[in-house]
TrEMBL record:
<feature type="binding site">
    <location>
        <begin position="211"/>
        <end position="213"/>
    </location>
    <ligand>
        <name>substrate</name>
    </ligand>
</feature>
<dbReference type="InterPro" id="IPR036424">
    <property type="entry name" value="UPP_synth-like_sf"/>
</dbReference>
<feature type="binding site">
    <location>
        <begin position="38"/>
        <end position="41"/>
    </location>
    <ligand>
        <name>substrate</name>
    </ligand>
</feature>
<comment type="similarity">
    <text>Belongs to the UPP synthase family.</text>
</comment>
<feature type="binding site">
    <location>
        <position position="224"/>
    </location>
    <ligand>
        <name>Mg(2+)</name>
    </ligand>
</feature>
<feature type="binding site">
    <location>
        <position position="205"/>
    </location>
    <ligand>
        <name>substrate</name>
    </ligand>
</feature>
<feature type="active site">
    <location>
        <position position="37"/>
    </location>
</feature>
<feature type="binding site">
    <location>
        <position position="54"/>
    </location>
    <ligand>
        <name>substrate</name>
    </ligand>
</feature>
<dbReference type="GO" id="GO:0016094">
    <property type="term" value="P:polyprenol biosynthetic process"/>
</dbReference>
<feature type="binding site">
    <location>
        <position position="37"/>
    </location>
    <ligand>
        <name>Mg(2+)</name>
    </ligand>
</feature>
<feature type="binding site">
    <location>
        <position position="88"/>
    </location>
    <ligand>
        <name>substrate</name>
    </ligand>
</feature>
<dbReference type="InterPro" id="IPR001441">
    <property type="entry name" value="UPP_synth-like"/>
</dbReference>
<dbReference type="GO" id="GO:0000287">
    <property type="term" value="F:magnesium ion binding"/>
</dbReference>
<protein>
    <recommendedName>
        <fullName>Isoprenyl transferase</fullName>
        <ecNumber>2.5.1.-</ecNumber>
    </recommendedName>
</protein>
<dbReference type="GO" id="GO:0008834">
    <property type="term" value="F:ditrans,polycis-undecaprenyl-diphosphate synthase [(2E,6E)-farnesyl-diphosphate specific] activity"/>
</dbReference>
<keyword id="KW-0460">Magnesium</keyword>
<dbReference type="GO" id="GO:0005829">
    <property type="term" value="C:cytosol"/>
</dbReference>
């Protein structure tokens, strides 16, 4: 049973902390995907170097992972480094590539204890070896865990992912393993790096930017979006709950209509 902040369906329980929304535990999104943005601005506001913002952002990753687990979210996908982020100054890129090691070096025991499974989407092969090794080690150490899936999008780009999927399907057609007419949406979904994951129910982007930045373009087709001005290092449990409360108030029709509107 979740704590008193979460109401049983139809129940009357009031939130202990009135600032926090009362959530319906039967409508928790299965998969939450987050574009973690605003680290640089958080640092700038404090006259700190950008990397200080990324380091603070890493602490938010821990906080939000714990909260997602507590709320019963099944998959948390975090956009940690895009295929376009290589354009940043070299010292910043090097710092970002060290963060998975620091994060996992510090928190892997906690993730193991919490039954969290670490996985990643993105181009693992072209990560610096030390980054790739840290992630591989964490994926291996948590492979048998069946709790929250903490999915890092690292060196990830959705167009590259879709391109690779198309290439693999085209190859299957060229080799007569399938016919072109057999290609359908489920085949494309199955050829993506997220093949084993449910599609995101809720997408969050922090820092006030309102764009997708090449993130999960196929997978987000029917996802609910929630944008906040809060910068990622300031994002916390209350903001996540707020996002989920908004999600719970949405009416997901998947292109259809409500039953009462079928006249
Ligand atoms: C975007 O903010 C953020 C990133 C490109 C990096 C996100 C990475 C983290 C939050 C830490 C990841 C931690 C682990 C464990 C991998 P920005 O730098 O573009 O911010 P700005 O728009 O304010 O400049």
């Amino acid at each position: 049973m979740l704590d008193k902040l979460i109401r049983k369906k139809g129940g009357e329980a009031k939130a202990e902390n009135e600032d926090r929304p009362v959530l319906d535990e039967t409508v928790i999104p299965r998969h939450v995907a987050i574009i973690m943005d605003g680290n640089g601005r958080w640092a700038k506001k404090r006259s700190l170097p950008r990397i200080a913002g990324h380091h603070e952002g890493m602490k938010t990753v821990r906080k939000i992972t714990r909260e997602a687990d507590r709320l019963g979210i099944k998959v948390l996908t975090l956009y940690a480094f895009s295929t376009e982020n290589w354009k940043r100054p070299k010292p910043e890129v090097e710092f970002l590539m060290r963060l998975p090691e620091e994060f996992l070096g510090t928190y892997l025991p906690e993730l193991v204890e919490r039954n969290v499974r670490v996985r990643m989407i993105g181009d693992h092969e072209h990560l610096p070896p030390h980054t790739g090794r840290a992630i591989t080690r964490a994926m291996e150490a948590t492979a048998d865990n069946d709790g929250l899936i903490l999915n890092f999008a690292m060196n990830y780009g959705s167009r590259a992912e879709i391109t690779e999927a198309v290439r693999s399907i085209a190859k299957a057609v060229a080799e007569n393993r399938i016919g072109a007419d057999e290609i359908d949406e489920s085949m494309i979904t199955g050829a993506l790096m997220t093949a084993e994951l449910p599609e995101p129910d809720l997408l969050i982007r922090t820092s006030g930017e309102v764009r997708l930045s090449n993130f999960m373009l196929w997978q987000l087709a029917y996802t609910e979006f929630w944008f906040t001005d809060t910068l990622w290092p300031d994002f916390d449990e209350n903001r996540l709950q707020e996002a989920i409360a908004v999600y719970q108030a949405r009416n997901r029709r998947y292109g259809g209509v409500d039953k009462e509107d079928t006249d």
